[in-house]
Amino acid sequence: SESGGAYNSGGQLVSYTFAFGFWQVYLDQLGMTSVYNHKVYCRQALTGGNYALLNTTTFVPNPDYYGALLWHKVMGSKVLSVTHKGSPYLRVYSHCSKKEPGVSFVFINLSKNTSFEIDLFHDLNLNGGSPNFEFKGHKEREEYHLTPKDGNILSSVVLLNGTPLELLDSMEIPELKPKLVDGLKPINIAAHSIAFVTIKDFNAPACF
Length: 208
What we know:
This protein is 14% helix and 26% strand. The chain has 208 residues and is α+β, with helices and mostly antiparallel strands. The two termini are 32 Å apart. Belongs to the glycosyl hydrolase 79 family.
């Protein structure tokens, strides 16, 4: 199957901005196709057209490049089932972590006004069943929050935990460092943001 952000090489002034993560919902497509057992997802294009992962003139990475890089960094190949009972503006996907042990999530907040506070639990606990995973919350979790510069979703600059992602003087990609958060605290997802979260002491049997 094929999807497209817009006819004729993408939408000018949109497809290479942070907004494309919401309009085309690139990371949402990665999550959704994984759930439906797709094995390969090809993104057109690395460079060329308005939807390129790199600026076609300077070759500076566009926001979706960093989203793809973080997906590759934290999301493993084993897909887990996850649901939420909140707003339809919040989307969530979960995989076994790329680096064991643990589980990784990606949260996509499509709302421009509403932030979300996330607590994790097992549905079976509500019905008197036995959970099939163990979540201790003793370890700090790793969080990577992506937001647009100045809160403008049409910005081509993306922030990681509040710091702009820019090429180093050597023209290398900057290191993508998480912020460490108390594992027992709720996960906060800001309006118009994307967050990758890895929980090291979330033990799901499917990941072993």
